[in-house]
Write a structure and sequence with these properties.
CATH class of the largest domain: Mainly Beta
Protein name: RmlC-like cupin
GO molecular function: manganese ion binding
Low-confidence stretches: 6-15
Distance between the termini: 61 Å
Number of domains: 2
Subcellular location: Secreted
Mean pLDDT: 91
Radius of gyration: 21 Å
CATH topology of the largest domain: Jelly Rolls
CATH superfamily of the largest domain: Jelly Rolls
Keywords: Manganese, Metal-binding, Secreted, Signal
Strand order of the largest sheet: 1-2-3-10-5-8
Structural class: alpha+beta
Helix content: 25-40%
Family: Belongs to the germin family.
Strand content: 25-35%
CATH architecture of the largest domain: Sandwich
Largest sheet: 6 strands, antiparallel
Number of strands: 12
Order of helices and strands: HHEEEEEEEEEEEHHHEH
Length: 250
């Protein structure tokens, strides 16, 4: 067997093995969640989680990880870590690349407290109509809080990657990216909301929104001698007949 053929064979086998592992984990997770939902008491739920490893989540495994141009986040929630069931919390570990930004979003069912492991970060939120904008600059060892449902963001203002840890007080906190969801509405609704803007501009903006962890602020890029480059754009709102982009743009 040629060496190149051998490498391709090994790579294919590794992919199949990884897929099998993913399928096995998904089946196990589904079985555990079904058992936990049926368990009448907390002690009964403890018995459902009968393996010691049912209480272990590996944040380095790639499970629950979303990767974008500006960084990546790994979320442990009840969907991938059943031990969180009925415990009222979830956790996210995030890494932002130099000048990366976790774009504005909300958690509809949870308040978040965030801890910055290294570097420097700008973070801000707006809680509701009539509320003032709250912004802070965090340095290593500091944290901040984002109230449930508030629109909030974080951006790495430095030229090195930063790591943060976020804890949310719901095992199913949810996340809603503001730009992707807003521009996923019917284009004429978005157009009317923005006032004097054309449907062509709405369509262009709708298809150009980057993923949640994006390349961030211009002043940071200039300071660090970086360029924005290509953004990943896989998290845009799916289109149906009800919110389809305009065919006849004026």
């Amino acid at each position: 067997m040629k060496f190149s053929t051998f490498i391709l064979t090994i790579s294919a086998a590794a992919c199949i093995s990884a897929q099998n592992t993913t399928n096995t984990n998904a089946t196990r997770t589904a079985e555990l969640l079904e058992g936990l939902q049926k368990a009448p008491t907390r002690l009964a739920r403890l018995n459902v989680l009968g393996e010691n490893t049912d209480w272990l989540f590996d944040f380095t495994s790639g499970l629950g990880t979303t990767r974008s141009a500006g960084g990546n986040v790994t979320a442990a929630n009840v969907a991938n870590f059943p031990a969180l069931f009925a415990n009222g919390l979830a956790m996210t570990i995030g890494q932002m690349e130099p000048c990366g930004m976790n774009t504005p979003h909300t958690h509809p069912r949870a308040t978040e407290i965030l801890y910055l492991v290294n570097g420097e970060m700008e973070a801000g939120f707006i809680e509701e109509n009539g509320a003032r904008f709250v912004k802070n600059t965090l340095t290593k060892g500091q944290g901040t809080l984002f109230p449930q449902g508030s629109i909030h963001y974080q951006t790495n203002t430095g030229c090195d990657p930063v790591l943060f840890v976020a804890v949310l007080n719901n095992e199913d906190p949810g996340s809603s990216q503001i730009a992707q969801r807003f521009f996923g509405l019917p284009p004429n609704v978005t157009q009317a909301t923005l006032g004097d803007i054309g449907l062509q501009e709405v369509n262009d903006l709708s298809t150009g929104i980057p993923d949640s962890m994006a390349i961030g602020l211009d002043q940071c890029l200039q300071k660090c001698g970086l360029t924005r480059g290509n953004q990943t754009m896989g998290q845009q709102q799916p289109r149906t007949s009800d919110n389809a982009l305009s065919l006849n743009m004026k």
